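Thread: Newbie trying to understand structure tokens

Hi all, I'm a second-year student working on a class project, and my supervisor (Dr. K.) asked me to get a predicted structure for one chain before our next meeting. I've only ever worked with sequences, so writing a 3D structure as a token string is new to me. If someone could post the tokens and maybe explain what I'm looking at, I'd be very grateful. Here's the chain:
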Amino acid sequence: AYFTATAYVDGDEGKKNYTMLVGDALSTATATVVRNAKYQGDPTIYAIPDDEVSKMRVTLDNLRSKDLITIQSTDAGRVDWRMLKHTMELKRGADLKWTLADDPQTKLDQSVVLQKLNALAALKATKFFANDLSTSTAGLNESNVSVTAWSKDGKTSETLETGRKADDGDWVYCRISSSNGRNEIVGVDWTK
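---
Reply by user tm_fold:
Sure, no problem. This is what the structure looks like when written as tokens:
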């Protein structure tokens, strides 16, 4: 079987499980790819469109959280941006306004700051890699962009660093690390 899916159902007769066996893809006269499927113990064979079958297929990457930064703009107290050699540190004051840490008198456009922070929080992982992926392969020995966000209380931090662009698509390698021990390299569609 291509894969099996089992559903456990509580009913009037107690718990029952239904296992569907899904076979290899078949081409049809209409060029629609289907898969034969049947419930275990039931002789009826069903033809299911392949795009529907793919929705049922479960992999670890499907189930993993795609979130990169969990500190939302409303919860952040400080953010450091480093782009190549340029660094900018922003702090949120008691009045909830963002300022430059080294020049609090410079007035910042608060809507633009929030837009940038929301865009950062909206980034999602698109690829996952084995833990043995080297930082040099990912181009993370010297990251292009590095953003660190701290919670308002300063106890939690999360850092996102971008590496080299992938050879096979519109994504970049990205290292995510945090004060709670997270440290992984993922792929991120940086065009979004």
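A couple of things are worth pointing out once you decode it. The chain has a mean pLDDT of 82. The first strand starts at residue 3 and ends at 11. Feel free to ask follow-ups in this thread.
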